[in-house]
Amino acid sequence: MRRVISAAAAAAALALAVSACGSSDSGDAAPAKSAVADPAQISGEITWWDTTRPDSEGPTFQKLIKEFEAAYPKIKVKYVNVPSDQAQGQFQTAAQSGTGAPDVIRSEVAWTSQFASLGYLQPLDGTRAVDNESDYLAGPLSSTKYNDKTYAVPQVTDTLALLYNKRILKEAGYEEAPKTLEELKKVALDVKAKTGANGLALNVDSYFLLPFIYGEGGDLLDVPNKKIVVNSPQNAKAMADVTDLVASGAAAKPALQDSYANAMTALKDGKAAMIYNGPWALSEVYQGKEFKDKTNLGIAPVPAGSVKAGAPTGGWNLAIYAGSKNIDASYEFVRFMSSASSLATVSGDLGLLPTRASSFQDPKVQANPDVAVFKPILDTAVGRPWIPEGGQLFQPLLEGYQALLAGTKPEDMLKQVDEQYHGIMKDWS
Questions:
Q1: Which strand (E) or helix (H) includes residue 111?
Q2: What is the DSSP secondary structure assignment for residue 193, as one 8-state letter?
Q3: Please, is 29 exposed, middle or buried when counting C-beta atoms within 10 Å of its C-beta (0-12, 13-18, 19+)?
Q4: Spatial distance between the Cα atoms of 382 and 398, rounded to a whole number of angstroms
Q5: How many C-beta atoms lie closer than 10 Å to residue 414's C-beta?
Q6: How far apart are CA 334 and CA 330, in angstroms?
Q7: 158 and 1 in contact (C-beta within 8 Å)?
Q8: Nearest to 156 by CA among 412, 13, 360
Q9: What single-letter DSSP state applies at residue 105?
Q10: Residues in the chain with pLDDT values less than 70
Q11: Which residues, listed in sequence order, are joined to residue 79 by a DSSP beta bridge?
Q12: With b meaning 16 or more CB within 10 Å and e meaning fewer, what string describes 144-181?
């Protein structure tokens, strides 16, 4: 997930939603179907905005682009890597102005329904972009729908796990990862006392706060009843859990900026024994000196709170800009990049979780042991609501998380987030 949406981007998202409501009804848009009998004869240049890490993940996707261009010699793909924390705002600005938007965007699952509601995405039902829809896992597939129509195809899915340094835990006297928050605190303190390394490094990001919320039985929204439930006793307990980890020394006090990079560096260099992270991080983790021997990395479910172990669901989709001048070429590109074979290549190379059931049977996927470890964690992950406002929920929660670690009381932090949520969803109770 590796994403933090700026306050400016969140404000822009809300402003754009308001401005678009009276001018666009994406639910009535009809998909433009390819009239070309032979897809191999389709020509044109398409621009793809990719949001993966250019150093550790980008090469695999660029390899697939070369395969696509070999199969479709009349289509040229312009590859543009856009930082994941900037892509949402940049795409909205470009789509709103009608200039500079890519033909295809790698859209975070929470953005897809928002972009669709604003009329920025091409409907895909009945087009060549959607191939063998029944093969997709139900969770990722649900994130591509808005008003019962399809506006994207799933590319990768993800969740969070506890990544840990087996060597350091063993030096502290532990052969297994902690299973509960109580155990996490104890193991982390023992690591610090016996090895000198920090026990846990936190990433100050909204997505990474969700395991604590879900673990105490909390949530952000009650979607069926259109109710905002972020300010709840369960969430207050979750925030107290987080602050206790830091106050006790079990978790190093994180910097409020660049905490993701800091946590990753600490794990890779052996300065922290444990972090929460997802399958997208593995290719980078294995570049660290502590994990030249890949078997030193442990992957376990996130520790359970008092109610359950609650890892969130995330991932990325491929969507086509409604204003693209190369719709047919874009259909073919999305179809190719979301094929079972392409997804298996990504999973085999990077450990990312494929969105097709059949891809898990591919030898390339089965040869990657990390996928096998993450799959059961994914199967029990907590689903998120795919609503247009979903992409705007993380910024207030991030600001609240930062305030919490700066000393704001849990109940005051949650009250602030609740007020911001009501500003976004004015007709929710």
A1: helix 109-117
A2: H
A3: middle
A4: 19
A5: 23
A6: 6
A7: yes
A8: 360
A9: E
A10: 1-37
A11: 48
A12: bbbeebbbbbbbbbbbbbbbbbbbbbebbebeebbeeb
Rounded CA separation 181/215 (Å): 9
| Contact by Cβ (8 Å): 126, 298 | no
CA distances to 25, 95, 246, 320, 327 from 127, rounded to whole Å, are 20, 22, 51, 12, 10
Residue carrying the six token digits 């543009």:
80
Position 267, amino acid: L
Residues 424, 308: Cα–Cα separation, whole Å: 29
Q: Provide the pLDDT for residue 37.
A: 60
Both tokens of residue 202? Answer: 């936190």
pLDDT of residue 78: 98
Alpha helices of 164-250 — where are they, by DSSP H? 166-171, 181-195, 206-215, 233-247
CB atoms within 10 A of CB 383: 11
Strands in 153-158's sheet, in edge-to-edge order, are: 75-81, 44-50, 104-108, 314-320, 153-158, 353-354
Using DSSP bridges, classify how beta strands 153-158 and 221-222 pair: parallel, antiparallel or unpaired.
Answer: unpaired
Tens digits of per-residue pLDDT, 335-374? 999 999 999 999 999 999 999 999 999 999 999 999 999 9
Task: Name the pTM for this structure.
Answer: 0.86
Radius of gyration of the chain (CA): 22
- 364 burial level (CB within 10 Å; 0-12, 13-18, 19+): middle
State the burial class of residue 382 (Cβ atoms within 10 Å of its Cβ: 0-12, 13-18, 19+).
middle
Q: 3-state SS of 303-366?
A: CECCCCCCCECEEEEEEEECCCCCHHHHHHHHHHHCCHHHHHHHHHHHCCEECECHHHHCHHHH
| CA–CA distance, 109 with 313 (Å, rounded to integer) | 9
| Residue type at 140 in one-letter notation | P
Residue 424 burial (CB < 10 Å; 0-12/13-18/19+)? middle
Contact of 101 with 95, CB cutoff 8 Å: yes
The encoded tokens of residue 189 equal 């303190």
Summarize pLDDT for 66-117 with one digit per residue, the tens: 999 999 999 999 999 999 989 999 999 999 999 999 999 999 999 999 999 9
- Residue positions counted in the chain: 429
Site of tokens 């207030």: 396
